[in-house]
Amino acid sequence: MELAQVRLLVSDFAACYGFYADVLGLKPQSGATEGPYEKFSPHVGSAGIALQDRAMMAEVLGELGETVTGHRSLVVLRVDDLDAYCAEITSRGATLLHGPAPMTDRMRVAHLKDPEGNLVELQQWLLLRG
Q: Which positions ≥6 away from 44 have C-beta within 8 Å?
């Protein structure tokens, strides 16, 4: 078994597309800026994040509501230099909710939200000291 992707169901596809492509700098697979589906990949690694139009999935399953409340997902991206990456993405319109700050003795993190309110955690792994 292989994890293919984490898929987020979104209502404003174009805004989310712009966030993952233009703000976070992930590579879109096809360039389908209006949806209903797109997969994004980082420059390194094989994991991906995909967006799917929420209304389209509601037609398939028949049980998804129009509005989502509360946090139902957390997308985690690992970066080499958290401070530099946060400076880069805030210059492109991202708003940090928290950090960069230590989370444990092994990790520093920052948090932000995409246009649909999905939480994104940026991680920088640290070498153990001692």
A: none
